[in-house]
Design a protein that fits this description.
Layout: H1 5-14, E1 22-27, H2 34-46, E2 53-55, H3 65-71, H4 85-97, E3 104-110, E4 115-123, E5 129-133, H5 144-148, E6 153-158, H6 161-174, H7 179-198, E7 206-209, E8 216-217, E9 220-221
Parallel strand pairs: 1-5, 1-6, 2-5, 6-7
Antiparallel strand pairs: 3-4, 8-9
């Protein structure tokens, strides 16, 4: 039987155990649908009751442009070494341990400014499952293995390559790049990163096809 969105909901619920918070990682190449899946999982699992699932994207750990300029990495923004992977791993560890019973604040990412924003994502103590998503959750270099150790499972989103590139170009255009600039950035920078991510596919606990990313509705796919 093909994997369905309901199957994913069941599997995510099963990660939670009494007395501990679980962390689910969602990875895949840029434009593959990671955020779509994470947001839909969180929305459906939370339903209309008290929220017990939180969404903490990796994007908040982008290094600020001023630091990328200092390091000479601005033209490679989005590559593995343009993130604070150690800080990300430390936050995930804190979320798992949850010893103080207080709100934990994670950084967010402002797409229009293309800059990280401190303290933008609150994770309440009632959250029993944290869904986090990003490109490099299964990378085996630098500080990234420390990230993987904090994740109960990692799911890999898989999308047809032509459609993935189309979505990625459209995203860059939505946030201010002209068409030619968007295409150039995707084919130069994003595509190099996508190849790194694709090589980690076999390390995932589950590969999620595009058909399972969203819950079907009576009129098609929502979200």
């Amino acid at each position: 039987m093909p994997l369905t969105f309901d199957d994913l909901l069941t599997r995510a619920r099963a990660l939670v155990r009494p007395g501990r918070r679980a962390v689910l990682g969602i990875t895949g190449s840029p434009g593959a649908g990671k955020t779509t899946l994470a947001e839909n999982l969180v929305r459906e699992l939370n339903g209309t009751g008290e929220p017990w699932v939180a969404h903490v994207p990796m994007d908040g750990f982008h290094l600020a442009d001023v630091e990328l300029d200092r390091l000479g990495r601005r033209d490679r923004k989005g590559a593995p070494d343009t993130f604070d992977a150690g800080g990300y791993a430390a936050l995930l560890r804190r979320l798992r341990e949850e010893r103080d019973g207080e709100v934990v604040y994670a950084p967010g990412f402002e797409r229009v400014l293309e800059q990280p924003i401190a303290g933008a994502v609150p994770v309440p103590p009632t959250a029993r499952l944290v869904v986090t998503e990003g490109n490099y959750l299964l990378l085996e270099s630098g500080a990234w293995p420390r990230v993987r150790r904090q994740l109960d499972e990692v799911w890999f989103c898989e999308l047809d390559e032509e459609e993935r590139l189309r979505r990625l170009i459209a995203r860059h255009e939505e946030f201010g790049k002209g068409h030619q600039e968007a295409v150039a950035w995707v084919m130069r920078s994003d595509q190099r990163n996508a190849e790194l991510v694709a090589a980690t596919r076999d390390r995932a606990d589950l590969v999620v096809p595009v058909a399972a990313l969203r819950r079907p509705s009576r009129t098609g796919l929502n979200g």
